[in-house]
């Protein structure tokens, strides 16, 4: 079975994680950044990166881009950016309205209380918060309504100063993904971002609104600042200026856009911005030109790593094959025409058309009785060539934007294959690790892991894992990487990355189903969350012997859906009580993990459970429009609230 057919056959959706904020935007920040000044971005010495000299050079680069590029296949779908401007305009017209419930005393009582311990959002990097529908400071909880994704939605404000007896004290007329920065709640909603002053929890006040052009690829809260990556599609007819923060924000001039000096499939400008959450002001920005396809974004405490498709020319790959491994199967006339074609400087589309014409004429010159055999021989030669040159067919460009000090494009590089999501990448001791799936048409896929230095040059790799499979999840834990690949079974790979120049595949384990999220449990144990035969599954791996990982225990739940499939932010672990929480389709499952896996209880909700948190010894389970509070010492329901 070819890899393309394999992917069609397993149309199960892998975990969609928060390297991207899952909605589109359009509009503007107030900012003093002078983006029209070519000197406003930091200089660099990387020969693989440059800045455009003029609008004309920018437009010419876009025209030369292989807009239909990608792997050497005949069909590459376009990626459209969706916005919902009508909803944004309606929401902006609502102004600063926030509602207060009748229980006005709750806000006052919350000022002196709060939990001694509470859960924060499950994120990739501990110091970097990620947007999610649930946020708390241990005293107040903000929960955004997820029922109406195409409408405005709302955010409930819950006083949790008495953890056993919470109460709804307010409502914000905007829903979406949330970040909480001290007394400012930042709400990401489709084509806009909103800032709310929540000093008075019972009466939040909208203090700023920003409409974003393009869409937000990633957002993080780090050290008091919000970091945004905004993607804007660009056209050679009108490439710049670019307004990632709308009409009222800074303009990015053509001469401020960085680009890879080696021509690639470019159609999108990625602008990384540092934003003051209290005022909404853009404090710094830097832009890079890449492709809209196969984008994943990883953010560390030092840098934002953007990835984009950096595919070679499909036409060049075909031509190279026909004049090498395919030469023996063609006649002299076809070879002469292809040799002449190689000397021309033609566009991608024109080269493909010429190759097609040569092959059509070659087929027409064959006797009918020999045509099928000749075509089959050429196809087999292609499969052999593609297998031997697998890593030439798809590549991913990687751009490092430093965030320590002024934002700056520090380095650029590329690796074979395509990363799954943000979890495919990890920064450790000055190196970037990135796991990818490598594909070519008509041959089996493989999976690799590359280690890049601070110049984003590859210094080590492990290649060829999970043949005829693709990556479903990745987790890095210090000097070890765990990779799950899948087609019909779930191979779990353990990789030693302690030596960046010589990473080693230490062991692997095959088991039914697949894991889309992995979470280290300590004591040489790793938890996997995923599916088996369409049902939610949890599995614990014992990795004490990396060369011989084993399944310690597994648990298949009577549930066919979990919010963890959509976002890793939905996962909750409570180490004090030795349990983790899995939101399900009709409630949430509490599972003990210290001595095997055992379902402790299911917290029932009216519809799917979406999120959970804990405050002291109380588990808060959120449905679509309800809150169930459970005492973790007895696992009995304590309180029920409609939101």
TrEMBL record:
Pfam name, any one: Beta_propel
Location of the region described as Disordered in the Swiss-Prot/TrEMBL record: 88-118
Residue ranges with Low complexity bias: 98-110
InterPro entries from the UniProt entry: Beta_propeller_containing, Haem_d1_sf, UCP006425_b-propeller
Protein name per Swiss-Prot or TrEMBL: Beta-propeller domain-containing protein
Organism of this sequence: Natribaculum luteum
Taxonomic lineage: Archaea, Methanobacteriati, Methanobacteriota, Stenosarchaea group, Halobacteria
